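Format notes (please read before filing issues)

Several people have asked whether sequences and structure tokens are stored in separate files. They are not. Every record keeps both together, in the order shown below: the sequence lines, then the token lines. Line labels are part of the format and must not be stripped during preprocessing.
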Amino acid sequence: MKKRPAMSLAETHIAIGPALGERRAQSLAAARRRSRFVAGLRLALLAALALIVLNAAVQVLINGRGRDFAPASVPTGEVERIVNPRFTGRDAQGTPFVVTADSAVRQPGGVPGLTALENPRLDYALLGEAAGQSAVLAETGIYNPQARTLRLETGVSLSTRSDYEFETSSATLHLQDSRITGDAPVYGEAPWGAIRAGGFEVRDDGRHVIFTDGVVTRLIIDERAGDGAEEATE
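Then the structure lines:
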């Protein structure tokens, strides 16, 4: 049996060269396919992110125009009970406001949108810093999104950014034109003293406060004096 002659080094290179070239071409083609796939996936992710941001912006715009949001709605017989309701809107000057409460109830067949609130709160520039979004304004309230009014009843406590504080049994916030009115007896305090009256109105974005019906004021003449106050009746 004849021995097969050994291949020279040059012949070995010639035999291996085409195989290596083919494998290298295949590897390069696979790498290009992976690069194209990664680039396409990156573009898809960027497009999805852009859609999410656009959707969030649209929702903020819709909410800013007065659309209400109720995290949970629990039907109870003929009425609709809403847990932690949230109503947003803007006044005539474009100032935003947010009405919240512990719960709300809507009566079927009543005025559209009219909602009874439990422990209502209001985040609005007309009110002072003490009456922020977490401050309860009254035990109950009625919010009318059509008229943009918030009627407060029982244990009403209000403060304005002009440093007035009021306690009364009922009051109405006219959110459309930034006013507060009350036709029940009221007790108020201000930096200059205290006042009692049969009614009141806060107007001109809180810059003017008008008291009516049997006004009695107590003026602070000198805060350093022990009882430096003077009482006046109108």
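For reference, the curators noted about this record: The longest helix spans residues 9-64. The chain has two domains: 21-64, 81-219.
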